[in-house]
Amino acid sequence: MSRILMVVSAADSLTMKDGTRHPTGYWAEELAVSHRLLREAGHSIDIATPGGAKPTVDAISLSPDTVGRDKAEELGAYLREIEADLASPLVLADVGGDYDAIVLPGGHGPMADLYQDPDLGRILLDADDDGLIIAPFCHGPAGLLSAVDSEGNCGFAGRRLTVFTNEEELGGGTGENTPWLVESALREKGAEVETGPAWTSHVVVDGNLISGQNPQSSAAVAHKVLAALGG
């Protein structure tokens, strides 16, 4: 059995380009689907957030109008099942290196906190140095921007990855009012971003880095992590 650290945003809003605050958090499908598949395979999962704050689920991600009634009920039921873990996450700053994989689900929350969290940056740089599995998906790859080395460079420059695309953000995300675009930011920092068709599952594996493009990639990312863990 492996130990997995799931790093989740503690943000409950994102400041938009026009200065308004957009309610957000983590995306239910991304956390619930990946957590369930990894747990059902027998691995232990610790959830950690900045400051140990209880993460907020993006209400839109549980709306029947967004995901369908059956899926909304299924996701809500699983989140209630793991409510104790969500209510008392680890403090990200206190997390050590006793893990085999780091998983970063999205939602727009990471654009508000994880992208510049120094504790996450430390954890990711150490994990990458040790060759541990790092698996961000959808907006989770925003967290990779926190991994800045001693010379001020992004620790994932030159790495192949995917992320929620500019096309998806502008066409079905928060649109033109989005404060910044994660795909563009990663490209600017030197990452080699590889995108698939919008709103379809797409996963890129570059050594120990396993990334997914969108919510539809949640299960595929988890399966790739399981394969990399050897089961």
UniProtKB/TrEMBL annotation:
CDD domains in UniProt: GATase1_Hsp31_like
SUPFAM superfamilies, per the entry: Class I glutamine amidotransferase-like
Residues annotated as domain DJ-1/PfpI: 30-227
Entry annotated with the keyword Transmembrane helix: no
Highest taxon listed in the record's lineage: Bacteria
Record keywords: Glutamine amidotransferase, Lyase, Stress response
Matching Pfam families: DJ-1_PfpI (PF01965)
Family: Belongs to the peptidase C56 family. HSP31-like subfamily.
The name this protein goes by in its record: Type 1 glutamine amidotransferase domain-containing protein
UniProt organism field: Arthrobacter hankyongi
